[in-house]
Amino acid sequence: MELLTFGDTGWGDELFFATLMTIAVSIAAMAIGFLFALIFTPLKLSKNKTVNIIGNCYTTIIRGVPELLVIYLLFFGGTGAAMYVASIFGYDGYIEINAFITGALAIGIISGAYSTEVFRGAILSIDKGQFEASKVLGIKKSIQFYKVILPQMLRLSIPNLSNVWQITLKDTSLISVTGLVEIMRQSYIAAGSTRDPLFFYSVAAVLYLVLTFLSMKIINKLEIRYNKGY
Amino acid sequence: MVSIFPSLLNGAIITLKLLISSMFFGLFIGLIFAILRINKNQFINKFAYGYSYFFRGTPLLVQLYLIYYGLANIEILRNSFLWVIIREPYWCAIIAFSLNTGAYTSEILRSAFQTIKEGYIEAAQSLGVSKKITFYKIQIPIAIKQSLPAYGNEIILMLKGTSLASVITIMDLMGEARKVNVLTFKPFEAFITAGIIYLFLTFIIHNIVKYLEKKYGFQT
User: pTM for the full model?
Assistant: First the structure.
């Protein structure tokens, strides 16, 4: 137990900050995922064939390749691409992109694909009458989306979004391969320097279990709150 | 592009081997734990729930590290015959993947067991079929048929999960792609080619499951 004390001799504070880092990356990734989902959901629902194909390609490809592949592609490829762009502007030094940004972006792209599917399902399950009623009342298309469709879509998608959140939270463990110090990386370092992998990976597992348990509790509260009127 | 293809294909074969063996063991584990989950005994029930909660609530990477690095720490295991198995990264990966997919499969099968219509079981009872035969000949086949679509998703998730084997030194498709990237400094070629192979595998699995669903699934 003395391995987990806070201070110079224990790993308690390091693991605490690593947990905060995991939460930060998950929230950033989820937010980036929402942005992607808000862009690609209309594409997937569009009646235009080519636009539709773009939306479908995004969700099919991202959900069909391993998460690790997306992370490696962004991490190794991103550095090369950034250096190429910089060399055009006359800078030939080595550029390293921040691990937090690449990690959050990679996981965000993945969670965006899942969120897109969730939003698509939610919009399709909104009663047709809602669209027709707002049309009859002469509400503009953009206002119709923000004031009528979006609130209902969010309510319907909370249960599935909670699954996406759990997947995102667990996927952040993969960012550890790029060197970002979150729970998994910190346990790896601690296990390496104390020669006690069993203990530290068990601690990591418990930390992840606590995070998933707490987020389930919070999401259940949200669900009850948003279903008050129904 | 052409020269890296053979090594990636070799990796793909290892990926498929990992996938098939872990799905095989995982199905058995899942079936056992699904049966334990619908057991009326509170203690057995809670134990099965705890198992699936742990493996669904923690990342696969943690489970893999726990088994590969963690188990080697236990003195008793190191001195026993099990050491032959757990010192090999390949077997550790299979153990971790099987336990992980077993937890998800048990949930899929449990929900399938619980949604079987009462009428089937009542019909069997009124025909005088024994409980054991009802279970093996009626409940299990129906549960497997009903859970086909969800199980198809699980296979694809596991295919993606096997890529984690590359972090414990197994040269699967992902590991080969990493090697190519390190040797040639061409990340896009290596990872995009690997991605296309993964997509191709996903596509095949998807279509096999779709075919099975059409052939054996329920038209409700």
Answer: 0.89
| Contact assignment for B59 to A171 by CB distance below 8 Å | yes
Mean per-residue pLDDT for A185-200? 90
pLDDT tens digit string along B73-131? 887 877 888 888 888 899 999 999 999 999 999 999 999 888 888 888 899 999 998 98
Give me the interface pTM, i.e. the ipTM: 0.87
CA distance B76 to B91: 19
> Is residue A139 classed as helix, strand or coil in its secondary structure?
coil
Q: Would you call B49 exposed, middle or buried from its count of C-beta atoms within 10 A (0-12, 13-18, 19+)?
A: middle
Mark yes or no for CB contact B156/A64 under 8 Å: yes
Nearest CA in chain B to A196: B73
Q: What CA–CA distance (Å, rounded) separates B217 from A2?
A: 56
- Residue spans of chain B under pLDDT 50: none
> Which domain does A141 fall in, by range?
12-226
Residue with tokens 């979004």: A161
CATH value at residue B131: 1.10.3720.10
Where in the sequence is the domain holding B199, given as residue range(s)? 5-216
